[in-house]
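::Encoded backbone::
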Amino acid sequence: MRLDKLIANYTLLSRKEAKQAIKKGRVQVNGQTLKKVDQHLDPDRDQVSLDGESVRYQPFIYFILHKPGGYLSTTKDGQTAIVTDLLPQDLVQIYDPFPVGRLDKDTEGLLLITNDGQLSHDLLSPRKKVDKEYYAEIAGIVTADDQEAFASGLAIDQGETCLPAELFIDQVDLDSGRSQIRLILHEGKFHQVKRMFQAVGKEVTYLKRLRMGGLRLDPNLDRGDYQEVDKASLLALLHLDETEATASQRKEDQK
């Protein structure tokens, strides 16, 4: 990778500012000051610093966020808080991460945030069959008939039919007419959990995502908190292949 590109990509400097910093002797590679902006280096092996601070080469970042209610799963800054507001803002500026899929504004739970487009595509692709598990509180008594309807492929509004889903009844309170359930989906339709329960005459009053594939929300992770994870661990949990994304990134880095 070119030295000026590495500095521009992994600091808050623009490409022009990175070139100026290099020419002024503010950048060191393996302890030596280099002033050649188009110097090529191996970012995996060479140690680079700017003004004495290490510049970490890391093409992708991965955060597991315990999304609280009240935040939009988007990167667009508007009148409402967005999920990337909860991450370190210097990393947000450098890496421009985005949420993988969406959780409704009032939905809580596991949300993966990254800048890895290939991984996001794989996670959201129906062909990869990455299932998602939710916990929900329901206004209404969830029954065995509902379980059967969900398992057979429920028809919801607008003529859509859902793939078979696994519905588990954790608790039913006959006095209050409320239920607590877990639901495993194998797809991701818009507002799917809420629409499925509406189709059987019930209402979701609270919804939380617990899991994506083998990636499970840490019960010790408070709402609004996050964990940074490395790609190898993440892919192992999700049972996905790293080869294609890595090759694509390397090709880009060499430009």
In short: The chain has three domains: 3-55, 62-126+225-253, 132-212.
